[in-house]
Design brief:
This protein is mainly alpha-helical and 138 residues long. It contains six helices and two strands; from the N terminus they run αααβαβαα. α2 packs across α5. This is DUF1573 domain-containing protein.
Length: 138
């Protein structure tokens, strides 16, 4: 992992983490950051709901997932549903990107306050998912 770290020392993740540390002044308390992080998640959920109920560009048609145990693992992705029908419109996409950006900002702020490298966290999660494959988070 340290080799990967050296190669991407000035990665976008590192630069973003440094920038958030520089610009975050008003909500510097961990309690403020936790509150803003929760608010950001709520705003994402609301934006998705408004895409369904307000705009109508997408629909949610949910039912129980049917898993065929006889299928090879690689084919399972083709037989499970996201329950989303339609495609998010450009206006709602922009709103969701903005809200997701806010969530990333406050997640990064929390990482900074706790002295956690997001890059290292991403590398660890990537390696775990890559190593465990289909058993990751199952």
């Amino acid at each position: 992992m340290s080799q990967d770290r050296d190669v991407l020392k000035e990665s976008l993740v590192d630069r973003f983490q440094e920038l958030v540390n520089e610009v975050l002044v008003r909500h510097h308390s961990v309690l403020d950051v936790l509150s803003k992080l929760a608010e950001s998640e709520t705003r994402i959920n609301r934006a998705v709901a408004k895409s369904v109920t307000g705009c109508g560009c997408i629909q949610i048609q949910a039912s129980r997932q049917q898993y065929d145990n006889d299928l090879p693992y690689d084919a399972l992705h083709q037989n499970v549903s996201s329950h989303i029908v339609g495609k998010i419109c450009e206006r709602d996409r922009e709103i969701l990107e903005e809200e997701m950006g806010q969530l990333l900002f406050y997640l990064t702020a929390l990482a900074n306050l706790l002295d956690i490298s997001l890059y290292d966290t991403l590398v660890k999660k990537y390696n775990a998912a890559n190593t465990l494959g289909r058993f990751y988070l199952s």
